[in-house]
Design a protein that fits this description.
The structure holds two protein chains of two kinds. By secondary structure, chain A is α/β, with parallel strands linked by helices. Chain A contains 15 helices and 15 strands. A seven-stranded mixed beta sheet of chain A has the order 7-6-8-9-10-14-15, with helices on both faces. In chain A, strands 2-1-3-4-5 form a five-stranded parallel beta sheet, with helices on both faces. Chain A is globular and about 75 Å long. The relative contact order of chain A is 0.12. Chain B is an all-alpha fold. Helix content of chain B is 73%, strand content 3%. Chain B has a two-stranded antiparallel sheet with strand order 1-2. In chain B, α1 packs antiparallel against α11. The relative contact order of chain B is 0.21. The chains are: A alpha/beta, B mainly alpha. At the A-B interface, α2, β7, α7, α8 and α10 of A face α1, β2 and α11 of B.
């Protein structure tokens, strides 16, 4: 278990036994080398080092059959789900998209009988208010409104402020959007994050660049001058340099958030003649950067590498340059080839209802929603009665589950989902009259997520 | 490295041109009406959003595509007309009140217009790329530069010259200056001061709209920019001197060029460059580059 504080009270019998036997095993084998068949059994019969004696005990084995506990009735009243995102202000366009996604998820799940027959009631809460008001509202949701689960938060600053409150009000808080790796640097009992973070996605991006352009040498970047842009760039370039120490940073541009004139940034970068230009702009700023870059013939001179490239697809439309590398942060609506049933279910319904494919914040909503749904169902199956908030939180820690964007496993230690990031190349799809990602790959989570509570840059150094 | 200098200078002039256009409207209104129009950023935003709609409509009509540039002027004119709705109705009654009333009122207009643009144009980014795309680009020092940006630089200079000529040489310009200097005396001379005020306010809104309309083809417009633009124009007015056109012009060029080379040599300076220049000017010449001491 390491330094991990083992707070779980409900322990399944089998696990307790395993724990005991592992300790016994370690105790008896100190100083000796135990190889082979004894592993996994209590008490090794090791004698001299290097010599293993195997003793087979003939004993009538009692057959143990798993019998699920009798199912108790599920409460009738609806599950209260509170969703928080930017519903007003400059980032309201995000809320506009994710609101659609949440409404669709809840509506369709309710049609199919809700979660274990319990209907879900969904409420929306604005995030475009000062942080302290967000926190006060968060507390109120738990203590007065008594919601079962709070999903949402785009700003990492708000997520960091709300996380301790979730433990205090003992209410499950699933973060689908906020992407700073710092959000999971402290252990919390009730806080979970289901998308990729700034310590992982830029690594995936760098690995993809190394694979697609193994000769990459001259690198430039344009990033926003705050934690998001800085983390993105630092982790990306550290990964790149780890594998190709001769990579050279030829131009750097730090833009302020909300900047719309990128002419000097583009000229500076082009003058340095880079092989690739890394970027992590989002929202309108990304749109205006790409728009201007097109007219500066930027894409004829260099390759664009962007961790949230999908955000500019609808606005730039068929003008979007092909052959640029990018990620939709973590999940892409077109999960490789529609192999995933849940993916088909969500994406088709989304397109039917809204006429456009869901963007990555919508996919992130789905990832968070299915984490909760799966945890409730699993806990009920094991316990035989409707789980308490605490039991759901315990199930979420370590849960592996499917969602429309792929497969997630939530880590026990820091509650970060090991969500494999998707990366791909842009291509114009006449069907949508805009760019889509094709030739995409889902990078294995083990390759890109730093161990729990580890600074990504420190982790990269240890490779 | 030096071969990119012409492009950096052009980029600096481009930014300067946009800053000048943006701030000149605020400046004229401030100089004549003595009102700090906090809603000014909204007229930039209105000009930009109107351009996205007008350009899209124009392209749909199938008229000769080179006439698409007229839509920029149409959008700016409509922004001016929207300004006309506010001056006689809301601003006129408060000229005689304390300044705080003007600030509250114009800030209120900014908030209302921000919500109106959200209702009309939605929350996502909007673009109007046709005027930008149409002209293509050329290479200078091995670096591509769009012709449209040259056009914007030219418009900035032309507008400055026209404004200067208007205020220095024409009869109406002189009357406006006289009104700015002393309201009572000009009224007693038989000048219809309220009409002059309306004219100037509409003109200020037109200039703000023009800045947005010219900028949007090469950039994009999205919610939240009204405040951003208000701050930018305010800084230029402070640097140049309250109500001084020449000051705003020279100030814009200094900021534009300094920003351009700042980004090249000190990549992290962009956040602060505008304010660093403002602080230096305030320390050395508190009244602004061309401002007069009260």
């Amino acid at each position: 278990m390491g330094t991990y504080k083992h707070w779980r009270e409900v322990k399944f019998l089998s696990e307790e036994k395993k724990e005991v036997s592992r300790r016994k095993f370690l105790a008896t084998s100190i100083g000796t080398l135990v190889v082979g068949a004894v592993a996994g059994y209590a008490g090794g019969y090791a004698t001299a080092p290097g010599k293993v004696v195997e003793k087979v005990v003939e004993k009538p084995v009692e057959k143990v059959v798993y019998k699920p506990p009798p199912k108790r009735p599920v409460p009738k009243e609806p599950i209260k789900l509170a969703y928080r995102d930017h519903l007003s202000g400059a980032l309201a366009v995000r809320g506009e998209w994710t609101k659609r996604a949440m409404e669709l998820l809840v509506e369709e799940t309710n049609k199919e009988g809700g979660i274990l027959g319990r209907e879900i009631s969904l409420t929306f809460h604005d995030e475009a208010i000062p942080v302290e008001e967000c926190v006060a509202d968060f507390r109120r949701l738990g203590l007065e409104a008594k919601v079962d689960v709070i999903i949402g938060t785009t700003s990492s600053g708000v997520a960091l402020a709300q996380a301790p409150v979730a433990d205090e009000i003992k209410t499950i808080y699933i973060i689908p959007h906020a992407a700073s790796y710092k959000v999971v640097m402290e252990p919390h009992k009730y806080v979970f994050r289901t998308n990729g973070h700034t310590g992982a996605v830029p690594i995936a991006m760098a690995l993809y660049v190394l694979k697609k352009m193994p000769d990459v040498k001259r690198v430039a970047h344009i990033d926003m001058d705050y934690a998001w842009g800085r983390d993105n760039w630092n982790v990306f370039i550290a990964t790149l340099k780890k594998y190709k120490p001769d990579v050279e940073v030829v131009a750097e541009v730090w833009e302020k958030v909300g900047e719309v004139d990128h002419s000097t940034a583009i000229t500076k970068v082009l003058a340095a003649k880079p092989d690739i230009v890394f970027n992590s702009h989002w929202g309108g700023q990304l749109v205006s950067l790409v728009r201007q870059a097109i007219e500066y013939k930027f894409f004829e001179y260099t390759t664009f590498v962007c961790t949230v490239i999908e955000e500019a697809f609808p606005e730039i439309g068929p003008d979007f340059p092909e052959g640029q590398l990018g990620a939709p942060w973590t999940f892409y609506w077109e999960y490789p080839g529609y192999r995933w049933n849940l993916n088909r279910w969500f994406v088709k319904k989304f397109i039917e209802k809204y006429g456009v494919p869901p963007n990555y914040p919508c996919m992130q909503c789905a990832a968070a929603f299915f984490a909760y749904k799966t945890a409730v169902e699993k806990a009920y199956e094991v316990l035989g009665e409707y789980p308490t908030k605490e039991q759901i939180a315990e199930t979420l820690a370590g849960l592996a589950y499917a969602h429309p964007g792929g497969m997630n496993r939530i880590r026990r230690e820091d509650h970060q989902a090991l969500a494999p990031p998707t990366v791909g190349v842009t291509k114009i799809d006449p069907k949508w009259n805009m760019a889509v990602l094709h030739d995409f790959e889902v990078i294995s989570a083990e390759l890109v997520y730093p161990p729990p509570f580890t600074e990504p840059l420190e982790w990269i150094k240890t490779w | 490295m030096f071969e990119a200098y012409p492009a950096y200078i052009l980029n600096g002039l481009l930014y300067a041109s946009l800053l000048f256009l943006l701030s000149s409207g605020l400046n004229v209104v401030l100089g004549v009406l003595k009102i700090l129009n906090l809603a000014h950023g909204s007229f930039y935003v209105l000009g930009a959003y109107l351009t996205t709609s007008f350009v899209a409509l124009f392209v749909a009509t199938g008229l000769p595509i080179y006439l698409v540039y007229t839509q920029i002027l149409v959008a700016a004119a409509v922004a001016g007309i929207i300004g006309f709705l506010f001056e006689p109705t809301l601003l006129r009654p408060i000229y005689k009140r304390e300044e705080s009333y003007q600030l509250l009122l114009t800030f209120g207009i900014l908030l209302v217009l921000s919500d109106v643009t959200k209702i009309v144009w939605g929350l996502g980014a909007k673009v109007a790329p046709e005027p930008f795309k149409l002209l293509g680009s050329f290479t200078i020092g091995g670096i591509p530069f769009p012709y449209y940006n040259l056009l914007v630089i030219a418009v900035g200079f032309v507008v400055f010259l026209m404004l200067w000529f208007f205020f220095a040489k024409t009869r109406t310009g002189k009357i406006i200056r006289a009104t700015a200097t002393n309201r009572e005396v000009t009224t007693s001379l038989g000048v219809n001061v309220p009409r002059i005020f309306t004219l100037v306010f509409v003109f200020g809104c037109f200039l703000g709209g023009l800045a947005g309309a010219l900028a949007v083809p090469m950039q994009s417009i999205f919610p939240g920019l009204a405040m951003e633009m208000l701050i930018l124009s305010f800084v230029i007015v402070v640097i140049g001197g309250m109500g001084s056109l020449e000051g705003a012009f020279i100030g814009s060029i200094i900021v534009g060029i300094a920003r351009s080379f700042g980004i090249v040599y000190f990549p992290e300076i962009e956040l602060a460059i505008l304010f660093i220049i403002m602080i230096i000017v305030l320390l050395v010449r508190p009244q602004g580059l061309f401002g007069r001491r009260e």
